[in-house]
Design a protein that fits this description.
heterodimer, A: alpha/beta, Pectate Lyase C-like, B: alpha/beta, 16 helices, 16 strands, 13% strand
């Protein structure tokens, strides 16, 4: 590792300023000690740098990034990787709700299980979850790829506009206008590419989900689905 | 016999008559509304704002100086208008030459020419403008000296680089036209460029979420604000925009969460597309909202430290001056700016007729077929509003608002428009007195709620209150 930042005794602002300064100075890799589940660490990092949090992180960490690669050796709080443009986040434990919310690009991998609304409003990112995902994951999903190796709770893919969601376990009750699509060889290759490097795979077998397109434009003949939209 | 008057008998003489029953409930508008819904099978959309008369700033009048106080020369004496927003935590507060900003209106709802023209006109007038639900268009950034970057619940077009280039960041919790409900952009306006910026399929009816994807509730808002401060290195102010509803509570929560500026959008707030039924039946009027917001900051001892921006139906310099007198640090104008650009002007009348409306009565922003090229993405219509023309009209209108506001301040003897105060006002209606706590004209009695005495009693207690609690 090129550089070390010890969070102990530093404010969050000081930690983030240190990360940006070290990255600007050309540090290839930065170890962050004692993150102590602190919130808002590693926000808006635009440099190509590898940052490893040696512990758990709190809410809204590794968000708004464009090019940095993060690794979290513990768990992550809400909204890990949200609004990311490019780069990656690898969480070795589990994560809270809103994993990868509204990502534009990049990749978030959580090896464990996650809370509700994983991949909400995804706008082009790639999300891989090794365990289960909670209620309403993929809500208002717009673009991109999400892979959930385990089970999902009710409402997966509710009101999604476009994009692909793959589930390796129980589907629960899919959300409004979330429909099954046929798995192709290209899908299988993509799933292997995303999962195998992390030792992940489907709990039972893959199902591919997408938008049925019936909520794209109002049609009174489809009134029932609009009334029941979650 | 000519019949009994209700059409139940009377023969030919009855048939020759045209009875015009003036229904109290089933007015022509209500009949049309029901019949349209019977065709559509859904709620109706439209642009503009509520059609419902609500208590508003016209229910207030200024008490200018006469013998008891000395006025300033109304047309020439110095009266400052400089306004600073975001003094609480930000390294670089937003410094405006006037107490007026332009509210958030999205590229998508408005054409790129409209956004660029507003930015340029607002810059020349010393004001700021605001992005909207759809991201920052490059033409808007290039033409806006001071640009507030909105983070809306949809996060459409959310871009950390754009945020870093902004002069302030505004977290949108809701809007006055429809607090509690997300935005709408119908498919006709989701053009290639709009779809690309928002990452949506071309032509989709976009119905935005109302909750942010990455935080929920006031406790999380504190963290969201911290995240934005970290992303912008604490340089620029963080605004929180709230649709006026439980305003006293909401302002306290936003202030506690760390907002520099709280933007209150009242019930008269505009929109380019909102379910018709929500305009008229959600939220509280702008005048009521500023009273609640001021009380909230007074309760917390933060009046002046957290700035208030009031918007929602602000239409002239009197509204601006009254808003400042009631506690706003600045006002926001949106619909009025659109009208300044030429919205509802009597040009291209055949295109209004094609929409089934007359100029002066159009609210068809949601269709994307704006006859004057403002609320459209149609390449045939956009050139009808050239950027330079738009800029000049916006600058002129903002200047006129400022001059009008200064006239009221000078007439009340103030060297700074921000020195206007509730004592400069009286109410014309009992309900306005109840809402504002300001005495009704001719009574010297403030009929307001228990907080009224704090706003209006002078040191000697010369303005007795008639509190609703009997205090």
């Amino acid at each position: 590792m090129d550089a070390v930042v010890d969070c102990a005794g530093l404010t969050t602002r000081e930690v983030n300023q240190a990360l940006k300064r070290l990255a600007a100075e050309g540090a290839g890799e930065i170890r962050v000690l004692h993150p102590a589940a602190r919130h808002c660490l590693g926000v808006a990092m635009f440099e190509a740098v590898r940052i490893r949090f040696e512990g758990s992180v709190g809410y809204l960490c590794c968000t708004l990034g464009d090019g940095a690669d993060f690794e979290v050796l513990g768990d992550a709080g809400w909204s890990i990787g949200a609004d990311m443009h490019a780069g990656s986040v690898l969480v070795h434990g589990g994560a809270g709700t809103n994993v990868g919310a509204s990502m534009k690009g990049g990749t978030v991998v959580v090896k464990g299980s996650v809370g509700t609304r994983a991949g909400i409003a995804n706008k082009g990112g790639t999300i891989v979850i090794g365990g289960d995902a909670g209620y309403m994951s993929g809500f208002m999903y717009q673009k991109g790829t999400m892979v959930i190796c385990g089970d999902v709770d009710a409402g997966i893919g509710d009101s999604m506009y476009a994009g692909d969601i793959y589930v390796g376990g129980d589907l629960g009750t899919p959300g409004s206008d979330c429909v099954e699509h046929e798995l192709t060889d290209a899908d299988a290759a993509l799933l292997a590419e995303l999962c195998e490097p992390h030792g992940l795979g489907p709990k039972r077998g893959w199902t591919k989900l997408g938008s049925g397109g019936r909520l794209h434009n109002f049609d009174r003949r489809e009134f029932a689905i609009w009334r029941e939209a979650m | 016999m000519s019949g009994n008057g209700d059409g139940t008998s009377g023969g030919e003489a009855i048939a020759a008559r045209r009875w015009l029953h003036h229904h109290a409930v089933w007015t022509p508008d209500v009949i049309q509304d029901i019949q349209l819904k019977a065709e559509l099978g859904r709620y109706r959309y439209r642009g503009m704002s509520t059609t419902r008369p609500v208590p508003n700033f016209d229910d207030l009048t200024f008490l200018p100086c006469t013998l008891s106080r000395v006025p300033l020369e109304g047309y020439r004496e110095r009266c400052d208008t400089e306004t600073v927003l975001g003094t609480r935590f930000a390294e670089r507060p937003v410094r405006l030459k006037i107490p007026i900003i332009v509210c958030g209106m999205s590229f998508g709802a408005l054409s790129r020419n409209a956004k660029a023209g507003i930015g340029l006109g607002a810059s020349r007038a010393g004001s700021s403008t605001t992005t909207g639900d759809g991201g920052m268009h490059p033409m808007e950034r290039a033409n806006s000296e001071r640009l507030v970057y909105q983070i809306c619940p949809s996060h459409y077009g959310n871009d950390a680089h754009d945020m870093a280039s902004a002069d302030a960041v505004e977290i949108v919790v809701g809007q006055g036209a429809k607090p509690g409900t997300g935005g709408v952009l119908l498919g006709a306006k989701v053009s290639d460029e709009v779809a690309r910026m928002r990452d949506l399929p071309l032509g989709v009816d976009q119905r935005s979420p109302v909750r942010h994807p990455d935080f929920i509730g006031p406790a999380d808002l504190r963290l969201k604000i911290e995240q934005i401060r970290e992303a912008t290195d604490w340089q620029v102010p963080v605004y929180v925009k709230i649709g006026a509803a439980r305003t006293r509570d909401d302002v306290k929560l936003a202030a506690k969460a760390g907002a520099d500026v709280i933007v209150i959008d009242g019930m008269e707030g505009g929109s380019a597309a909102t379910p018709d039924i929500l305009y008229d039946h959600t939220g509280i009027p702008t005048m009521a909202a500023i009273c609640e917001a001021r009380r909230a900051l007074e309760d917390m001892g933060l009046l002046g430290e957290v700035q208030l921006v009031l918007q929602g139906g602000i239409k002239n310099g009197a509204d601006v001056a009254k808003a400042l007198a009631l506690g706003a640090d600045a006002v926001g104008v949106g619909s009025a700016v659109m009208i300044a650009l030429g919205c509802n002007s009597a040009n291209y009348i055949e295109d209004y007729h094609a929409l089934g409306v007359e100029p002066g009565h159009c609210a068809m922003c949601h269709t994307g077929q704006c006859p004057v090229g403002i609320t459209t993405q149609d390449e045939r219509l956009i050139p009808r509003l050239p950027v330079d023309v738009a800029a000049e009209r916006v600058e002129n209108f903002l200047n006129a608002l400022t001059l009008e506001c200064q006239m009221f301040a000078r007439a009340c003897g103030k060297h700074d428009v921000h020195d206007l105060e509730p004592e400069d006002l009286r109410t014309l209606t009992l309900e306005a007195s109840m809402i504002t706590g300001i005495p009704l004209v001719g009574t010297d009695v403030a009929f307001g709620a228990p907080w009224a005495h704090r706003m209006h009693v002078d040191g000697a207690g010369h303005l007795p209150t008639a509190d609703i609690d009997g205090h």
